[in-house]
Amino acid sequence: MQLLDGKKVSNEIKEEIAAKVAKMRERGEKVPHLAAILVGNDGASLTYVGSKVRSCERVGFESTLVKMPSTTSELELLSKIKELNEDENIDGFIVQLPLPPQIDTQKVLLAVDPDKDVDGFHPMNFGKMALDMSTFIPATPFGILELLERYNVDTKGKHTVVIGRSHIVGRPMSILMGRKGWPGNSTVTLTHSHTKNITQITSQADIIISALGVPNFLKAEMVKDDAVVIDVGITRVADDTKEKGYYITGDVDFENVSKKASFITPVPGGVGPMTIAMLLKNTLLARERHRSRK
Description:
Blueprint: E1 2-3, H1 6-26, E2 33-39, H2 43-59, E3 62-68, H3 74-86, E4 92-95, H4 105-111, H5 123-130, H6 139-150, E5 159-163, H7 170-178, E6 187-191, H8 198-202, E7 207-210, E8 228-231, E9 235-238, E10 246-249, H9 254-257, E11 263-264, H10 271-292
Parallel strand pairs: 1-11, 2-3, 2-4, 5-6, 5-7, 7-8, 8-11
Antiparallel strand pairs: 9-10
């Protein structure tokens, strides 16, 4: 069993990006600028956005954090998005999800300029990804592809089972694993909460990507020997014996599944760190695109 170490690989990617940014500075070019809009005070979102800002500093990007109260109206948020769309200094920006209930998430994602949509959530970018066109790939699926590539995991002709059909991970992952090229060229089965006999399906899989958000859902008996297991799930489980009052766990019963898997991602330290690294990579790509048009 080999760990797919997202922490290690994400650090390598950040170093590669930092070297490119340093050369941009040497040439007197504008460095990438990433902005993030945070509405409200969701604990996980605050942690995630804080991590993004620190990562920007580390690689030499400029960053802007736009904090808005949880009482923000949809109109106010759309007005702020329009402002960022029109700001030539901003190369890419994200609207941190989830949003408060008074705001229509779909309307917000549609309002983001596809050329600045470094999260890869805009329907135009999603459509381009589905058609194998050059675009921003959503950061988490992009990170999974990068892990598979850097660890030289063979995907050609393999049976990939994706658990979960969210627009952020499951759906794009099922498209990307079936695309021509590498990582890809696998035969994909997309499963979800209504799938019957899921154990029968997962136990035939060469690669399992679980993005369900149910702690320890994937058990050892659901996995065949030497399968590749990618755990995208991340759940806080209350535990009074821990200093923070909780512990973080994934969708996979790591202790037992890791004994059968050929490759497996840990939680934390697997897919999570890759998401931020690929967001930075998308922002660098956005900067290069904007420069080439001028």
